[in-house]
Amino acid sequence: MRRSVRPSAKPALIAAAAALLLTATALPAALADPAAVPGPAAAAPGPSLTRIADTELDPRAIYFVSYDGLVNNNSFQKNGILTHAGHQYAAWYTADRSAIVARRALGEQEWQTVALDHKLKYDDSHNVISLGVSAADGRLHVNMDSHSDGFYYLKSVPGLMSSPEEHDWTAAVFGPVQTSLDGLPLTSRFTYPQFVATPEGGLLLSYRAGVSGDGRNGLAAYDGTRWRALGEWSGSTGRYSTAHGSSTSRNMYLHGIDYGPDGTLHAFYTWREQNTGVMCARGGLSNHDTGYVRSTDDGRTWTNAAGRTVGRTGGPDLVEFDDPGTVADPLNADHALMNQEHQATDSAGRPHALISYVPGRFGQCVTDYVAGRKAHARAFHVHRDDAGRWHKTEIDVPLASSQRSKLAFDRYDNAYAVLPYGRVVAASAASNWTDWQVLFDGAGLDAFGEVVLDETRLAQDGVLSFMYQQKSTGTTPSPLRTVDFALPR
């Protein structure tokens, strides 16, 4: 199947809305002409947004609410939308449950779509589609439709991504749907596929083996020729105790797994305890603590921020909840701390994360995490400075949602957080990321909640691009769209 999708025909309305909703940081008049001012060059600009496009990918994308989320827009979906070699790619399920992949050239408004030979199994928002690119052979990889069971995988012909103009966007460029990685089975309890492009042109595939409260993170590696299983790297055992009770089983929920500019692999995470008795009330979330580890050998060895080894992938020494020096921000299990939020690195390779929970000023015991988060949750920015200190700043904007946010940086290291409903807040690097303010309030999007961020596009053309699905009711399909904002260049 192939079709073209055209943008909303309201350019004048969009331009007028943009003028009202955008916030820019202006330089003093004396600095407008650097040549007129002796001494250092003008200061780097602060954060700003210019809305440049809003296009429809699918007028009737599949819609059902499961685990407070949508299968086409989930925070742990990496990557539901990405950019490579001047083209943007996206994946989703349409109304008849077919898995769709699409592409467009950057700067163009029309998308080309292909229906893959697979239909969504269950009404489960965990069963997302994730995309990855192996630059070594120019292939697009697709992993989809799994929640603690088997996965579905396929890959394109070589060269599709490196030479997109030479390939028609048809089903013929994709191989058959498999239930393994070219014969590599991994695990029968597979969830949360995340493709990570390696600096050498290969791919890592991150996944969870097991179930919520009793799972381990694993890795597989693709070198442009074949897949290899690297094994599991996070542990699930040991006793975690609180004033309310104890738990002896858990899983690590990743905020992300990403390379920094120097080739270091970064991972922020929270821990989910299996025994809800560790909480003050069973209606909360048994997530606790924000942890951080890193790897300088493509995920084979893991260290804490100070460089001490705390785990090795595929061996008996796994990263555990009580490993020394791994907690970036301590928090008990009584504040509805959200799992699988987001992370990014700045141009200097400093690790940053977004976390969210109900602050203590609203009470020390969340009894219903959905209601509590909708009423009181706030997002927080966590980062590590060059001296090795961790910092946390509250983004004082009510989330009004049980859902998650996304994080990105522009070329000047200004930070942008995309909150639920497509709201964008930002902080300047000059303030050490403390002056968070609303740049876009989400007006006109009618977004359901979480969005899927194109994490790769900013570096290519300075555009913040994210995919969102509009609100609906029951199982009535709704439009799936992508919105683009130009950032400071």
UniProtKB/TrEMBL annotation:
InterPro entries: Glyco_hydro_beta-prop_sf (IPR023296), Sialidase_sf (IPR036278). Keywords: Signal. Residues 1-32 form the signal peptide. This is BNR repeat-containing protein.
